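debug: dumping io for the single-chain case to check the tokenizer round-trip. Nothing else runs in this session.
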Amino acid sequence: MRRHRIAALLLAVLALIGTALVTAAPSATASTAGVCDSAPNWAAGSWYSAGAVVRYTDGRYYVAEHDNPGYDPVISTWYWDPYTCQDGGDTRPGAFPVSEAQFQQMFPRRNAFYTYNGLVAALGAYPGFAGTGSREVRQQEAAAFLANVDHETGGLVHIVEQNTANYPHYCEANRPYGCPAGQAAYYGRGPLQLSWNYNYKAAGDALGIDLLHNPSLAQNDAAVSWKAALWYWNTQRGPGTMTPHEAIVNGRGFGETIRSINGAMECNGRNPGQVQSRVASYQRFTQILGVAPGGNLSC
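debug: decoded output
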């Protein structure tokens, strides 16, 4: 009789444990990935309350920042923000391989102007960026871009160039379009410190934004600021022989990105301290992303 009671007691305990495990499982495995798994496809004209997550037509996810009657997430950026589904970055092909948590770890002192959502919103301008090749290559490119950004802005602290004495030097007035915003208006701004009137003209033309007449957009609008930096990274060779994007996806290494950005001032032994600063940031960021930095780190 006593044995039966003990057996019954054990069965009751096991049943309670099993129930607890079943009820605890959802919270233990719950993540933003689950939110995305159940997210509906976005539909124009449907009502969305703040906090709603939808899957857009390109496969990316967006969260409603404000109630809205089905505005397009790509166009209505005040109502919608890009949504990252996993702590390790979005693993879908072509998606940005850096999560918001990793971004914040990389830039713990960053200026509030430089938002993660602003960066993600800018990615559509250059979908090949950090979206080309294997996941390792994509992570390396994201780390390489952000490492150069880290160096140029002091950890995403500075929005504009700090040496104001340089400001009047960035105007080539003999260009056909001149310097309509003023002789001293084209100083360094944004993540890669876009400077010179001809760069503002070219970046604005490529992005469909009149940066030549309104260069201050690069310091007042986070998405424009990030897009201008991505324009340089993906299309400009600078003093190098290839774009920074090409340097990474073609296996030429982080050192070639330095050459394309500021090689005339830093590479070939001109300023090894500056080069090492960039390399150290790159190594730290690849470690955060859990990817090997690859070779040819210096220039």
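debug: round-trip ok. The chain has two domains: 26-83, 89-293.
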